[in-house]
């Protein structure tokens, strides 16, 4: 089956780059989203999210007439669902966006179509997707649900790209193709082969769902280990950065870096899906989440100690984003720490975030000032490194040696 027309549901950080890359291979792509603003922006050949080179790829695809965005679904050969899967209170996965996507595409599905779930999902979500579609379309046979021979193919192929390197990783990363049946795997592999250079590895849908959650949990557990080491090292008066660099000289040790906590919408969220599915059994995974979630509190206490040394503390928080060299503030520990400092009346709080133009809503009206790095260096007596953005990495020892420094990223451990 050749894929002449592909529909991507959800045009966010994953859906839009995926749609644009497939369109760049000459396939007609219809992107569907609930945001009118996103649709208008994309149809003008522009982007509503920040990701290196994405603007160029989208503009080229729209200009060539291969990519079009719409608020309503239309018939296609394949549907790729890339909608958010956040968690609700109590860390339970919220699948309502997937359900809404199922309802949106169900009316236009035709025999022989392929439906792929890309959203990071708890185990069983792909099967649920098939049953939601079956409810809407009793005239079609969905795999794993209908007793008849399936005439629609459903698979899970989790996205695995790193924000900041999305376009490169979309093409070069290996993909896990989890079909509800082996025929579903075959169809989905055919689709991914149109734009993926990495290997496409077949498995079942449940294993593919768990594989994605496992990747992010592995990273979360490793970072929690590093964060725990940083707190132990503080207590024992050891430089944790030197410690980890030394331990990592062992050929079979690879400890990640401690930081102010774990942010973003993936690593801080996905492990909870495993905990929710197996609450008694997922002990390390839960503890790692708790350690990483507790780290911002620990950092705030260290900053308060530093500020207490001054009569008029001026605290400059370097970075608000959830990681280096991006503008994404979602689930950012740096933002939470800055907010906590403002609430706690620690002193005058300055925020330096070279990737944004105005103070985020959460910090407005809190007495926090968004300033340049230069200004912060001139007036602050406490310097807090929260994100390892490039301009902060370029600082020299004479920029900071008159300040009390709380360095959560190990930028100055070299001085
Ligand atoms: N962090 C540390 N120490 C480290 C590495 C990261 O504290 O050594 C922190 C970062 O500062 C950030 C958070 O962890 O706050 C997450 O950053 P990240 O770069 O590790 O990951 P994300 O959330 O940007 O992207 C991850 C990736 N998953 C893995 O590397 C296993 C990406 O490939 C996934 O596609 C993405 O999650 C996702 O969408 O699930």
UniProtKB/TrEMBL annotation:
InterPro entries to which the protein is assigned, alphabetical: 6-PGluconate_DH-like_C_sf, NAD(P)-bd_dom_sf, UDP-Glc/GDP-Man, UDP-Glc/GDP-Man_DH_C, UDP-Glc/GDP-Man_DH_C_sf, UDP-Glc/GDP-Man_DH_dimer, UDP-Glc/GDP-Man_DH_N, UDP_ManNAc/GlcNAc_DH
Any GO molecular function: oxidoreductase activity, acting on the CH-OH group of donors, NAD or NADP as acceptor
Domain UDP-glucose/GDP-mannose dehydrogenase C-terminal: 316-414
Domain of life of the source: Bacteria
GO process annotations (BP): polysaccharide biosynthetic process
Keyword hit for Oxidoreductase: yes
The UniProt record lists the keyword NAD: yes
Record's keyword terms, sorted: NAD, Oxidoreductase
Family, as annotated: Belongs to the UDP-glucose/GDP-mannose dehydrogenase family.
Protein name per Swiss-Prot or TrEMBL: UDP-N-acetyl-D-mannosamine dehydrogenase
Gene that specifies this protein: wecC
């Amino acid at each position: 089956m050749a894929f002449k027309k592909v529909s991507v549901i959800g045009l966010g950080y994953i859906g839009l780059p995926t749609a644009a890359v497939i369109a760049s291979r000459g396939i007609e792509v219809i992107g569907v989203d609930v945001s009118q603003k996103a649709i208008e922006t994309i149809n003008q050949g522009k982007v509503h999210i920040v990701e290196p080179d994405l603007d160029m790829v989208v503009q080229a695809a729209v200009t060539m007439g291969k990519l079009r965005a719409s608020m309503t679904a239309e018939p296609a050969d394949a549907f790729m669902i890339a909608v958010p899967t956040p968690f609700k209170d109590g860390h339970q996965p919220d699948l309502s966006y997937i359900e809404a996507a199922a309802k949106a595409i169900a009316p236009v599905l035709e025999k022989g179509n392929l439906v792929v779930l890309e959203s990071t999902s708890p185990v069983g979500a792909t099967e649920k997707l098939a049953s939601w579609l079956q409810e809407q379309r009793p005239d079609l046979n969905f795999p794993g649900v209908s007793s008849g021979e399936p005439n629609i193919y459903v698979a899970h192929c989790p996205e695995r790209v790193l924000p900041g390197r999305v376009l490169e990783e979309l093409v070069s990363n290996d993909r896990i193709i989890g079909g509800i049946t082996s025929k579903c795997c075959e169809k989905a592999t055919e689709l991914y082969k149109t734009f993926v250079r990495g290997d496409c590895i077949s498995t079942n849908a449940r294993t593919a769902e768990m594989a994605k959650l496992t990747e992010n949990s592995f990273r979360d557990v490793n970072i929690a280990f590093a964060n725990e080491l940083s707190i132990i090292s503080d207590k024992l008066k050891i430089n944790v950065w030197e410690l980890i660099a030394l331990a990592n000289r062992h050929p079979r040790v690879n400890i990640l870096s401690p930081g102010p906590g774990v942010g973003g919408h993936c690593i801080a969220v996905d492990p909870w899906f495993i905990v929710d599915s197996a609450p008694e059994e997922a002990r390390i995974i839960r503890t790692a989440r708790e350690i990483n979630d507790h780290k911002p509190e620990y950092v705030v206490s260290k900053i308060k100690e530093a500020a207490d040394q001054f009569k008029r503390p001026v605290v400059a928080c370097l970075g608000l984003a959830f990681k280096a060299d991006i503008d994404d503030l979602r689930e950012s520990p740096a933002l939470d720490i800055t907010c906590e400092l403002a609430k706690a009346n620690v002193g005058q709080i300055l925020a330096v975030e070279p990737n944004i133009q105005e103070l985020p809503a959460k910090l407005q009206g809190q007495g926090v000032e968004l300033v340049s790095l230069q200004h912060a260096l001139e007036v602050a007596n406490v310097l807090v490194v929260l994100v390892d953005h490039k301009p902060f990495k370029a600082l020299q020892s004479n920029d900071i040696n008159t300040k009390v420094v709380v360095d959560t990223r190990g930028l100055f451990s070299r001085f």
